[in-house]
Amino acid sequence: MRELRYKKSAFFFSLAIAGIVVAEVIHTTANPFGGFFGLWGPDVFVGQSVGGRFSANSDYTLSQVKIWFMNNSSSIHPAVKITLRTDHTSGSVSVPSNTILAEWNINIQALGWNPVQEVLVSNGGVGLQAGQKYWIVAQSNSPSGVNAIWNFASVGNTFSATTMPNGVTWQPGGSGAALTLTVEGNPGLPNPADINHDGLVNGSDLAAVLSAWGICANCPADINHDGQVDGVDLAALLSAWSA
């Protein structure tokens, strides 16, 4: 059973800026202010993780994610782990998978029920494929009462999910109130040969391949993902050379 917090009050606005990125909006919702229920949302604490689903209509490279949080505490900034995950669909049930594509660890800025938008910047190496479903998941080890609250948007509906009381098993929440969520990206999938994600394939990437030469599981320099960095990866890098 998802825990919700409701509050009718004057609305406060605070915006946190974590870098300026020129990108396209892949998915967005309204902010949390001005809705019929006031400021509200599901708790993110040790007993409940929360996920919001989105999809991309074209291929993109993720640039940033924006989420509005408020806080059950007026003095503690609770730690929250945000992950980008693939979708797991079984029959008509869609929930977050255990496959994590990106991760951010933050202490939310909000104190009390004054929402603050967190801006989570990607290093440019995460691709979002056209037509695929993805999830942004928030989880925390904070106890109830001193925890983050992921704000619902003032209007709109999107697909969401929460975990069961065990904090592990997901249950779909369906297309109810929209969790505040904006996802932005640059058109096109990232080039796997651009190992340092600076938009170029050059000497820096070559140095990364040479320094990682040999067995290298889950290594960025393993361009073809075969568990080792070798001549195949070197050839792929040279064929993509741009500067």
Protein traits:
243 residues; mainly beta; Jelly Rolls; Type 1 dockerin domain; 2 domains; nine-stranded mixed beta sheet; six-stranded antiparallel beta sheet; 2 helices
Indicate the low-confidence ranges by residue numbers. 6-21
Instruction: Give the overall shape.
Output: elongated
Q: What is the highest CATH level, the class of the largest domain?
A: Mainly Beta
Distance between the termini: 55 Å
Structural class: mainly beta
Q: What is the tally of beta strands?
A: 17
Secondary-structure arrangement, i.e. CATH architecture of the largest domain: Sandwich
CATH topology of the largest domain: Jelly Rolls
Number of helices: 2
Strand count, sense and barrel status of the largest sheet are: 9 strands, mixed
Helix and strand sequence: EEEEEEEEEEEEEEEHEEH
Query: Helical percent range?
Result: under 10%
Strand content is over 45%
The average pLDDT value, as a whole number, equals 89
How many domain regions? 2
- Rounded Rg: 20 Å
